[in-house]
Hints:
By secondary structure, this protein is α+β, with helices and mostly antiparallel strands. It has one domain. The chain contains 15 helices and ten strands. It has helices spanning 3-17, 21-33, 37-49, 55-68, 72-88, 94-102, 114-130, 134-153, 163-175, 179-192, 199-209, 213-222, 292-302, 304-328, 330-343, and strands at residues 237-246, 251-254, 262-265, 273-278, 282-285, 287-291, 357-366, 368-377, 383-395, 400-407. The strands form three sheets. Strands 6-7-1-10 form a four-stranded mixed β-sheet. α5 (72-88) runs antiparallel to α7 and α7 packs antiparallel against α8. The chain is globular and about 85 Å long. The termini are far apart.
Amino acid sequence: MKxxxxxxxxxxxxxxxxxxxxxxVAESRKELKNGQLQEALTHLKPLAETPSxxxxxxxxxxxxxLQIAGKFKESNENFAKADKLIELNDYHSVSKIAMATLGxxxxxxxxxxxxxxxxxxxxxxxxxxxxxxxxEAMVEVRRVNDKINKIRQEGRKNYELNPFAHYLGGLxxxxxGKYDDAxxxxxxxxxxxSANPFLPEDLIRSAKKSKRTxxxxxxxxxxxxxxxxxxWYDKNKGELVxxxxxxxxxxxxxxxxxxxxxxxxxxxxxxxxxxxxISGVGERRSKMVYNVEKVVIKTLxxxxxxxxxxxxxxxxxxxxxxDQIRQKNELAGFLAxxxxxxxxxxxxxxxxxxxxxxxxxxxxxxxGQYTLTLQGLNGSGFPTPDLLENIxxxxxxxxxxxxxxxxxx
Length: 409
């Protein structure tokens, strides 16, 4: 047996024994859930900074962890690196495709799912909002639109186009007094997902403010249950909008039936909604505006056909490769077949720190200074350990005040 052949077998066998992406980030996720933010950052930082086929997905998880820790500027620096890496890695080298065919999909650069690519800019926009850099946040929203147009041309499904990205754009536009742009963004969000419970009010309000008389009348007829709030048009009032990332998205692991296939497992959460308490004013409950878990699961389900076709081709290629080696050396061919079979496993890479869903709690307030408490609630309405107290914020007339919170339990 030639040394090159032996090296290939040993490489494949060693790879098969290597830790998966999920096992490498499991400790960091656990630390985030326990509030050990610095420890999680310490573990993720070297992985995100080291060039590798997995660097993109490490950057995504590290960027999210930085946002959770309130390091919004550093978070955006990592998301910018991730966005650039997607452009650079929008290809696979011939040699790595060959290795992936004989081994595993994990042997090629991680390119990111369509919904992940869009969420990079959504997260960047959220960071800019927390930094009070609204112009920069709008730049990220425009980049989302560019990506969506590209993904549409690739024939991807509507559920991947992220109605939340459009919705966030509408909120930012409206806060900046660009009511026509806000109306267009709200309308685009509604076309993708009409279930957002805030959209009926947003569409009516933005249509009226943008002087789209016909659209205003049309939405009023479509949503007769909506009563217009005088606060919407009161120039002395502003709106508090709390953007909540709730829980954890599903984790990707090997199927218990066959390790060649991935399976998504829902991550249970103690908290299902958030109660927003404003001192001296009252309270509001959060409502879900984007179900990340549903999108992640649907994406994997829709990719099954492609995965099956690729596995069939890879299996045939492995059989041919092993047979060619066996013709020259019986033992080598036998070992090659075993090595390639053992190394054939599902690619478990994913943006693993995404939330289960995005929720929003909001209310209109007179201009002034306020104190806020956010309390997690379980499915029965009882408090959970998720708690953020005594947050000071101010409301400006005619503007929206944005706050961000991640519920981790």
